[in-house]
Amino acid sequence: MTRPITAGVDGTEESLAALAWAARKAVRRRLALRVVHAWRYQRHEAIEAADPDVQVGWAREAVGEAARTVTERHPDLEVSTDVVAGADVAALVASAAEAEMLVLGSRGHGRVVGFLLGSVGQQVIVEAPRPVVLVRAGDDPAGEAAGREIVVGQQGDPLDSAEALRFAFETAAARGATVRAVRAWTLPPVFAYSPGSLKLLDEAGGLEPYEKKALAAALEPWRDRFPEVPVVEHVEMGSAGQVLLSVAQAAQLVVVGRRAHRTAVGARIGSVAHGVLHHAGCPVAVVPPA
């Protein structure tokens, strides 16, 4: 089954930027584009029509207009529209399950502040079974053709970041871009050392060579699968979020794996994804594990 790329729209400038990003992605990947709006009936004195059928008609008209702007730019792209009734999170998560990826807009105020990730966006990222890409208003498509890198974070063993690496390499292959794979490391506490770990570090020649070998091992299957994609291996000491952000200034896309966890106050995304989403100056893809 070939899944479409799905863009969630709500009429805002940032959601229209997300739609434009999704359309370009769909053209490169030769996939269909689905334009979705999550609609709920709202009774409010400022809303002229109290009839739900009238309100949903407005929503369909707005989504159709957004889709027409895409077909004018990409006449060969297969585009469909859908107005899904229900709560925003549930509707978007359900749409993501049927898509190759879900693309959403996110508010932002300059490169310093980055994204303002609301509760809906965060919950969708936590629960979506497919990758979710966040795009802000003002995203410049010229950056995709200017040789900018796809930056992807790698951590743990090869399987831990396999899906994030897959997404990064597939995107780079479609765009003719370079992948910069980033692995950050920190000094472990003294009590974390064991005879077994010390032996591994000794065989690797130290901590940094060990981390470089771990990154190379994680990248090996993707280098073999995408031999045409140039790769930069980046190993640096520091927190993963800070290292990723430091190399993302000139990136066209940052890809991070999802490490969602549930707390007493609800589900939360991992700290690395959270930091990158709030401060990156380019679109960010959050990829769930397999």
Explain this structure.
This protein is α/β, with parallel strands linked by helices and 290 residues long. The chain has two domains: 1-139, 3-Layer(aba) Sandwich (Rossmann fold), CATH 3.40.50.12370; 146-290, 3-Layer(aba) Sandwich (Rossmann fold), CATH 3.40.50. It contains ten helices and 13 strands. It has helices at residues 13-29, 52-73, 88-97, 110-113, 119-127, 162-175, 195-204, 207-225, 240-247, 271-279; strands spanning 5-8, 33-39, 79-85, 101-108, 115-116, 132-136, 150-153, 179-185, 231-237, 253-257, 261-263, 266-268, 284-287. The strands form two sheets. Strands 1, 2, 3, 4, 5, 6, 7, 8, 9, 10 and 13 form an eleven-stranded mixed sheet that branches. A two-stranded antiparallel ribbon has the order 11-12. A hairpin with a 2-residue loop joins strand 11 (261-263) and strand 12. It is globular and about 70 Å long. This is Universal stress protein. Residues 1-136, 150-288 form the UspA domain. Belongs to the universal stress protein A family. InterPro entries: Rossmann-like_a/b/a_fold (IPR014729), Universal_stress_UspA (IPR006015), UspA (IPR006016).
Descriptive labels:
Universal stress protein; Rossmann fold; two-stranded antiparallel sheet; alpha/beta; 42% helix; 2 domains; Universal_stress_UspA; UspA; 290 residues; 11-stranded mixed sheet
* Biggest sheet statistics: 11 strands, mixed
Structural class: alpha/beta
Alpha carbon gyration radius: 21 Å
CATH superfamily of the largest domain: HUPs
- Cα separation of the termini: 17 Å
Family: Belongs to the universal stress protein A family.
Pfam families: Usp (PF00582)
Protein name: Universal stress protein
InterPro entries: Rossmann-like_a/b/a_fold, Universal_stress_UspA, UspA
